[in-house]
Amino acid sequence: MAGNSYGTLYKVTTFGESHGEALGGIIDGCPSGIELDLEAIEVEMSRRKPGQSAIVTQRKEPDSVQFLSGIFEGKTTGTPIGFIIPNTNQKSDDYSHIKDNYRPSHADYVYDQKYGFRDYRGGGRSSARETASRVVAGAIAKQMLPEIKINAYVSSVGPIHLDTPYQELDFSKTESNPVRCPDEKAAAIMEEYIRDIRKQGDTVGGIVSCVIQNVPVGLGEPVFDKLHAELGKAMLSINAVKGFEYGSGFSGSEMKGSAHNDLYNPDGTTQTNRSGGIQGGISNGMDIYFRVAFKPVATIMQTQDSLDNKGNITPMNGKGRHDPCVVPRAVPIVEAMAAIVLADFYLINKTY
Does residue 14 contact residue 130 with C-beta atoms inside 8 Å? Predict the structure, then answer.
């Protein structure tokens, strides 16, 4: 299996399966001498971990990180940072019913066709549990770039949208509710909607918006490695993501250039920011903002037709512990992947 690593200079490799002994990763290229706040890393992990509220999967995992290398006396040494996250609450029997069946809209069928073998326990590498390792790498990347502020939040759940401009939101309220929406009224409506969807044995998708502030001018390469292209790749690599747009996004396609252009101020900032903080693939110092669309979780607690490995269509009931909506737990993952991208480009920029 290829594609388990991301990055050029700040390179992250993840390993492990949802129901294996542990998940883990190796971070190569992290500079030496960075004093790490290990408690801050644990806080990031607690934001992503399962079982944190009544509207997410009830699998109970502490998701404590055990660092094996690359850190001495609380500082990075410049050598590869190795870590593991033990799995402690596997219930592999929950998946015995799909040993020979392919769940609709899961990776089961394509894994079996591609590799001739699959780990059916929770999806193996295709499980969103793999993202725990990304959050560790992202938490360290954030500490590499303390001036840069990355704030993601839930801006929609199903048909419920928060349309308030991010400049008017108080990001300190994002963690005040289980939905991770910084608007209390919208959060309450979203939470009630997710609870109702769960009672129906169904799932629902949503959107995570992200704002990156205090980004220096010059991150990104102008041809194939554009900053927005790498952010898009990073976000689209997250499980269940179906869409990515930054700046004016698709709405910009309906505008005239005279209305869309960001006119300059004398200091190089712009009067508007429809470019989303990136021009020509390079950061321009303005806020970077983007949206990431997540599909509904594929496993639903209803009977659906599935395909078995002998080509038969058979009814199947969803089992196990699954999120009725992934977006609340996806918020720290979006932030982590954004941090990894920026850390990589930061180091690349220092080579000039």
Answer: yes
DSSP code for 301? S
H/E stretch holding 259: helix 257-260
- The answer to whether the CB of 201 falls within 8 A of the CB of 302 is yes
**Which residue from 292, 291, 314, 316 is spatially nearest to 303, judged by alpha carbons?**
316
For the segment 133-175, what is each residue's pLDDT rounded down to a tens digit? 999 999 999 999 999 999 999 999 999 999 999 999 999 999 9
Biggest alpha carbon–alpha carbon distance for the chain: 68
Residue 38: CB atoms within 10 A of its CB come to: 12
Judged against a pLDDT cut of 70, whether residue 59 lies above it is answered with: no
Q: Are 108 and 118 in contact (CB under 8 A)?
A: yes
Residue 10 makes CB contacts below 8 A (sequence gap 6+) with 27, 29, 30, 141, 144, 340, 343, 344, 346, 347
Within 8 A by CB and 6+ apart from 316, the residues are: 97, 98, 101, 103, 303, 304, 305, 306
Burial of 253 (0-12, 13-18, 19+ CB in 10 A): exposed
SS3 for 33?
coil
What does the block give as tokens for 113?
């066709």
Pair of tokens at residue 268: 């190089």
How is residue 322 written in tokens?
A: 């699954």
